[in-house]
Write a structure and sequence with these properties.
The protein has helices at about 15-25, 60-75, 135-140, 155-165, 185-190, 285-305; strands at about 5-10, 30-35, 80, 85-90, 95-100, 105-110, 115, 135, 150, 170-175, 195-200, 205-210, 215-220, 225-230, 235, 240-245, 255, 260, 275. By secondary structure, the protein is of the alpha/beta class. The chain is elongated and about 65 Å long. Helix 1 packs parallel to helix 2 (about 60-75).
Length: about 300
């Protein structure tokens, strides 16, 4: 077996990375988890999580992330706050180049760098995130039972999620900057047939405002430039997500616009490299499937190492 600093390096400290780290530490692998900021990933900015099994009363995103990290630490998972700037994943020994100037080598790597939602970049968006501004209808929809809310976007995800939100909200306004949707026809038809959905065309959101929580949004018609106020209790920003791919050698990995393609065992096109969580090319991005993928990725690493020649 070639010499390397580690048997496994995990890049990213969200639910996928921490779960992979937990499994690796329990398996007594020579492992390290690298995270450039605070462990927890996007969960840290989630106000409340109501759909993670084992917490019947719900749990704050911060608390859930802390529990992920605490369980990994109980099995003595080494976690280093280091930023990975680039990688060379080809060949039997993988090389990771850190912002500190260090180079680490490993026989295997799990990529768990995650993704981030595209923001509107308007006043009030950041301040009300978790207090009425959301980027995940599946996660937060049940908090808006009996309320009127807005969805910003016109693609498949935005329109599908708008339909999903009608299970809870009394009214869902879909705000789109164009005069027609980008979503596929079958998805559009479902939305147009739903009497709880109202479309506001040729319009952008310029501000989100409220007190302790969102109370309304300011709109601007892109053709007439007329400004109006829409009273809503929630604003779902669904204008796409971006993979955290800046440090990844995409020329060495099969990917879909930066999202890494894997098989069902979370193996990438590069031998010895697995991926898990929101960085993967897939339809659904939830905390629970990120954690599950982290576990599967680590088991794949163990199998790879056992067959290493």
């Amino acid at each position: 077996m070639p010499e390397a600093d580690y048997q496994l390096i995990i890049v990213g400290g969200g639910p996928a990375g921490l779960t992979a780290g937990l499994y690796a530490a329990r398996a007594k692998l020579n492992v390290v988890l690298l995270e450039k900021g605070t462990t927890g990933g996007q969960v840290m900015s989630t106000d409340w999580v109501d759909n993670y099994p084992g917490f019947p009363e719900g749990i704050s995103g911060f608390e859930l992330a802390e529990k992920f990290a605490a369980q990994a630490r109980r099995f003595e998972l080494p976690i280093k706050l280091e930023e990975v700037q680039s990688m060379d994943l080809a060949g039997p020994v993988k090389k990771l180049f850190l912002a500190s100037g260090k180079t680490l080598t490993s026989l295997t790597v799990i990529l768990a760098t995650g993704a981030r939602p595209n923001p509107l970049g308007i006043p009030g968006e950041k301040e009300f995130t978790g207090k009425g501004v959301s980027y995940c209808a599946t996660c937060d929809g049940p908090f808006y039972r009996g309320l009127e809310i807005a969805v910003v976007g016109g693609g498949d995800t935005a329109v599908q999620e708008a339909v999903h939100l009608t299970k809870f909200a009394t009214k869902v306004y879909v705000i789109h900057r164009r005069d027609q949707l980008r979503a596929t026809k079958v998805i559009q038809e479902r939305a147009f047939a739903n009497d709880k959905i109202e479309f506001i065309w040729n319009t952008v959101v310029t501000e989100i405002f409220g007190g302790s929580d969102v109370e309304g949004i300011r709109l601007k018609n892109v053709k007439s430039e007329e400004e109006t106020i829409l009273a809503v209790k929630g604003c779902f920003v669904l204008i796409g997500i971006r993979p955290n791919m800046e440090m990844l050698p995409l020329n060495q990995l099969d990917n879909d616009d930066g999202f890494i393609k894997t098989d069902k065992e979370m193996q990438t096109s590069q031998p010895g490299v697995m991926a898990a969580g929101d960085i993967c090319s897939k339809e659904m991005r939830q905390i629970i499937n990120a954690a599950g993928e982290g576990a599967v990725a680590c088991i794949s690493v163990e199998r790879y190492l056992s067959n290493f020649k």
